Automatic annotation (TrEMBL):
Positions of Mg(2+) binding: 459, 465, 468-469
A single MF term (Gene Ontology): phenylalanine-tRNA ligase activity
Compartment list: Cytoplasm
One of the GO biological process terms: phenylalanyl-tRNA aminoacylation
Protein name according to UniProt: Phenylalanine--tRNA ligase beta subunit
Length: 793
């Protein structure tokens, strides 16, 4: 949420130290993520008044203007289509330098001299409007410095609110926090009831179920008819500027005012074109298969748990989310029906996201809007509209549901409990004062209070909530550190468990960086990579994060793509986390690698990472178990992996992971520049270690024998290794694959695998005859089990 510091100062004394204010709000729980200027400094840019406009003698699209600063007139050549006599526009005088780097100099355009430049809003860096000159308010004085005239010496706070603090999603809400943290009084704008000048009203009915346990949806609906406004009138310039600084685009007086009141007071409003409404409004839950055409042009099908606003003919809007297209304000609207309602947060939450809608209104209603605010919001909007567009206001009409919204119940607060939880001594009078600053009603004797939260604080319900409020206003930095006192129970730890930190350190040593991704992801993207069923979220953050991940690959590949788009050609990422299936969740360690094997350097030739490089990384991981011989890499296919470059990892007969190159179709879909390789390994089964056992070191020399076996080209090397190890027995201490050869010297369909055997006994020296006999036994078993022959025969 963006908030203007000057707007905030209308409500409370903020002081002049902006960084200190930002720090105080952040420490109070309203994190200030960014501080930015409302506009650039514009030295040499002043308010100019156009005195005359004549056509350029040699250019059809150019005009020659005389522009006054009050003290001096300037001849300006201008091509803007909206220039006119009497308009006020920004004038960049000679020597001025614009934010885009343009330096204003004396110039001659098609033979006519120009002594400055009239500017658009984009050229000034104020907004993106570039269709014409920035049309300034007529009451500005020519010659005024533009920054001072427009109040651009303002500061914009980017406020990041936690989901429970819906009360702070407005200028009023942030002002309350400033007042509470600084101990300053609030001075809100005067909002006096508007005296009705017509008797027109519009009927409203709130339809609720008779069952006591049925949801009500809407507890209060406040409305007012305003007739005879000037159609398509723009909102005042000062209001447009405040909306712009809050990140909203001005549209028209009626729409801008509803947005302004929402930003100022925190009460979402809606304005209907009264001529488009039929009979009366009914607030109810949707009927099966009902449809609504939204303001963005989409048509959605509703379900019975969705609260809607309807009239006799059709549905007018999705309550608390977005209005419908058929009843919106248009250029010719002259009669308006203002609406401001209180919806139960439980009956609004998640409804917008279900249809891919996250609006300013839904964000506020989901968190809870003050149920006592609606009348003030309508009065404020009426004041602003009558001042901007004229018209006649009818009486304020409040319609309530048959059941009232539950009022906040008093909460017991004990002084002893406050000090116990916070671990600090805080005087009882200070505790009471801090709570009263927040608008809470505190009664009872010191040490035993009954505290009633204000209607706008939906997040304060139990004693611990009150203690949290005391802590943040007292200042977390003012709570002294204290050593923890409590029983320490050591967690069980065995040598058969490899810590995730150890596995992570190994990958970091091999050039990887750790990534942390959401545990939920995009359904369509994940289904393409891993088609197994995923657990859908009932209240997803967005449509792109709608299901739980069944693999860590989608998140890692998305992070890889993000890095490549930022010119990072060599990327290695890993993540330790859980994947989720319909039946269980499994912790895995996964990685992704692309680019060159080594960073760019002079000491080694550049080479792209391949399948065997990432296989080596996985082998290093499983080497931590001390049982690398239990693992096998078996060629199998996976939808996410390249055919012929994928392998499933087995430990014994149990599959524990995958390894391979990402399928080219997925690389193309993600715009990945280089071949990408991934792995995923279960931590429980894949990183379970064997208990180390003592083994005597032989004092006798080893014997080395090399053989080259010719086998079918489709036979995995792992199968050859298994036969050799089985037939050689305990005397085989090390088995090394020396080479794999396919070529003209071999029969088609065959390959040669060269193996190095190191033979050794712990009790005696082996003889050559014994070694030869053992090798002959190995060769015999290779021939019998794999139909292998020796290459030199």
């Amino acid at each position: 949420m963006k908030i203007s510091l000057n707007w905030l100062r209308d409500w409370v004394d903020t002081g002049d130290d902006v960084p200190a204010l930002a720090h105080a709000l952040t420490m109070a729980g309203l994190e200030i993520e960014g501080i930015a200027a409302a506009g650039p400094s514009l030295p040499g840019v002043v308010v100019g008044e156009v005195k005359s406009v004549t056509k350029h003698p040699d250019a059809e699209k150019l005009n020659v203007c005389v522009v006054s600063t009050g003290a001096e007139d300037f001849q300006i050549v201008c091509g803007a289509p909206n220039v006119r006599v009497g308009m006020k526009a920004p004038l960049a005088t000679i020597g001025a330098k614009l934010p885009n780097g343009t330096e204003i100099k004396r110039a001659k355009l098609r033979g006519v001299e120009s002594f400055g430049m009239l500017c658009s809003a984009r050229e000034l860096g104020i907004n993106e409007e570039a269709s014409g000159l920035y049309d300034l308010p007529a009451d500005l004085k020519p010659g005024q410095d533009l920054v001072g005239a427009l109040g651009l010496d303002d500061t914009i706070f980017e406020v990041n609110l936690t989901p429970n603090r819906g009360d702070a999603m407005s200028v009023q809400g942030v002002a309350r926090e400033v007042a509470a943290t600084r101990g300053k009084p609030l001075h809100p704008p005067a909002i006096e009831p508007v005296v009705a000048t017509i008797t027109d009203t519009f009927p409203v009915r709130i339809e609720t179920a008779k069952r006591a346990d049925a949801p009500v949806g809407c507890y209060k609906f406040v409305g007012r008819v305003i007739r005879g406004i000037r159609p398509n009138v723009p909102s005042p310039f000062w209001m447009q500027e405040r909306l712009r600084r809050a990140g909203l685009r001005p549209i028209s007086a009626v729409v801008d005012i509803t947005n302004y009141v929402m930003l100022e007071l925190g009460a979402p409003m809606h304005a209907y074109d009264l001529a488009k409404l039929a009979s009366g409004i009914n607030v109810r839950f949707a009927k099966p298969n009902e449809k609504l055409k939204l303001l963005d042009g989409r048509e959605i099908e509703l379900t019975p748990d969705v609260l809607v606003i309807a009239d006799e003919r059709s549905i007018l809007g999705l309550a608390g989310v977005m209005g419908g297209e058929d009843s919106g304000i248009a250029d010719g609207t002259v009669d308006v029906f203002f609406e401001c309602a209180f919806f139960d947060p439980n009956d609004v939450a998640g409804r917008g996201r279900r249809y891919g809608l996250i609006t300013d209104a839904s964000q506020r209603f989901e968190r809870g809007v003050d149920p006592e605010l609606q009348e003030r919001a309508i009065e404020r909007a009426t004041q602003l509209l009558l001042a901007s567009a004229g018209g006649n206001a009818g009486p304020l009409v409040v319609t309530r549901a048959t059941r009232a919204f539950p009022t906040p119940a008093p909460i017991r607060l004990r002084h002893s409990r406050v000090e116990h939880v916070l671990g600090a001594k805080i005087d009882a009078s200070i505790v009471q004062s801090l709570l009263e600053r927040l608008g809470m009603v505190v009664s009872g004797s010191a040490g035993q209070w009954q505290v009633t939260p204000p209607t706008w604080r939906f997040d304060v319900r139990i004693e611990e909530d009150l203690i949290e409020e005391v802590a943040r206003l007292h200042g977390f930095e003012n709570i002294p550190e204290a050593a923890e006192i409590g029983a320490h129970e050591p967690s069980p730890w065995t040598e058969t468990h490899i810590r995730n930190e150890r596995a992570s350190d190994l990958l970091v040593d091999r050039g990887y960086q750790e990534a942390i991704n959401y545990a939920f992801t995009d359904q369509a993207y994940q289904a393409a990579l891993c088609p197994e069923p995923a657990v859908a979220l009932s209240n997803a953050i967005s449509a792109e994060l709608a299901v739980m991940r069944v693999s860590l690959w989608p998140g890692l590949l998305a992070a890889l793509g993000s890095n490549q788009r930022r010119q990072q050609p060599r990327v290695r990422l890993f993540e330790v986390g859980r994947r989720y299936s319909k039946d269980a969740e499994t912790e895995v360690i996964a990685g992704v690698a692309t680019g060159s094997v080594l960073p760019e350097q002079w000491g080694a030739e550049a080479r792209k990472v391949d399948f065997f490089d990432i296989k080596a990384d996985v082998e290093a991981l499983i080497g931590l178990t001390g049982a690398a011989e239990e693992f096998r890499f078996v060629a199998e296919s996976h939808p996410a992996l390249h055919p012929g470059q994928s392998a499933r990892i087995y430990r014994g007969e149990r599959p524990v992971g995958w390894l391979g190159a990402v399928h080219p179709e997925h690389s193309k879909r993600l715009d990945l520049t280089y071949p990408v390789f991934v792995f995923e390994l279960e931590t429980a089964a894949g990183l379970a270690a064997v208990i180390p056992e003592f083994e005597e070191i032989s004092r006798y020399p080893a014997i080395r024998r090399d053989i080259a076996a010719i086998v079918d080209e489709g036979l995995p090397v792992e199968a050859v290794r298994a036969v050799v190890q089985q037939s050689a027995g305990n005397l085989l201490k090390r088995l090394t694959v020396l080479s794999v050869y396919q070529g003209q010297q071999l029969q088609k369909g065959k390959k040669s695998i060269a193996l190095g055997l190191q033979l050794q006994d712990t009790s005696r020296t082996l003889t050559d005859n014994e070694a030869d006999a053992l090798v002959a036994q190995v060769v015999e078993q290779l021939g019998r089990q794999l139909n292998a022959t020796l290459r030199d025969q």
